[in-house]
Amino acid sequence: MITNVLNGYPQAIKDIIVGLSDLYDEDSLGIILYGSAASNRLVYTITDHKYEFFSDIEFLLIPNNRKNIGNKNYRKEMIRKSSDYLKALPFISQAPFVDVYPVDESYFSKSQLRISTFELKRTGKILKGKNYLELLPNVSKGNYNPAIQNIEIVKALKILLIESNHYFLHNDEPSEREQSRFCYFLYSSYLNILRTLLPWFGYFKPSIEERVALIPCLKKEVRVSKYFSEEQLNKFIDIANHKQKGIFNDNPKELFVFTFEGYKTLLCCLLESDRECLIKNIEQRKEAIFWGSEVKKNQLVLLTRFFIKSLNCLECLNNGSKITNQSINEVEACFDELISGHNAYRLLNIIDNYTLMEKDRWKIIGSKD
Questions:
Q1: What is the C-alpha to C-alpha distance for residues 258 and 174, in angstroms, rounded to an integer?
Q2: How far apart (Å, rounded) are the C-alpha atoms in residues 143 and 138?
Q3: How would you classify the pairing of strands 57-63 and 98-102?
């Protein structure tokens, strides 16, 4: 079955995916391949007949044992086994990271109306078990809620901050490989802007190639052309071409700035905000871009502020500018608010846990209330 599903894949890639799925076979009712591997769009280079991977390989597992569903230790063990397997293959110089996520059927039936759900339903590949993808809701222009998707912007800013901090501030002299991998990360981050931008204007496509092909359509959107420059829009096309060919020769500092500016432009476009008023408008118009309870929306606002202000400081360092005391104080103030917000979230969990405990306690006591 797996061999038929992977028709058209290079033999070495097919062997890797089959070998990995064999590792999980005994423990699982179902195995689903998703992400770039499912679309046969893994990015890698070949030097001296050895593969250096840039893309991850991602699986969803439906475990036999329900105790393993969502179990972090089980997930870590599966990831470790995958890594050990790939390291032993002689034709790989740099193995891909393999993510293995154990889920049950409700993961599919209760999936939110987000682009990741749309992509999984359209491009996921069943390697074992029944077609769990049929349980996923259909995501379309008619039922799509952009505010649910926009948590991806916050996640993207978080990862941009963490990865850039590591590359620029914890790496005295990056190797050529480290520079290539950082550029690959920035390419992926910049292209992910389209995952949020295109559906906002009614365009739903699962692959990078299909999304980039819609750049001419975006250029005709008055709102897009008001905020995104011609250079920013054309950059999607250039980066997509370079990424798929495994060409990572951009200047990391310039690419970082370009990517960060792209996300600020995206937020300005969604909020119809001037750059100078962006932080204020994120706070005042959180209902327009974020979805969920008041606590959740406030957390997303706090996180977004913290990430943007921190990335602004990192941008200053890369430009050779000084970071002012005021800028650092603003980042510190955001961090203090995050701690307070985290404590509010902890309180919410404590009360929820207390409620569950009390239900059992009063059953024991004998109360019907």
A1: 20
A2: 9
A3: parallel
